[in-house]
Here is the input.
Amino acid sequence: MSVVIVTDDEIHALNAQWRGKDKPTDVLSWPQSEPDAPLSAYLGDVVISRDTAERQATARGWALEDELALLLVHGILHLLGHEDDSEAGSKKMKVIERRILGKPLDPLP
Here is the structure.
């Protein structure tokens, strides 16, 4: 697995190119394996915006390191095939995040 920490400008460009969303985001991931296929030895790529992570950590009232850990876990869960586009998928990911880190990626206040 590769993990890259970038600026908002860099993640904005990736988000526009790969997801068609013309805005920065906190974390993006690209799994190596196709959905429902066996996992490959290389899980894929996770890209995190440090700029967004800093803002979110401040808004949540916790350390940048906690936010980066949360975003990394969130990205890895996507590499493992989890989705958060549906309410059920989002709830499942939050349960796993809480179990791993003690706090889920809840909406910002």
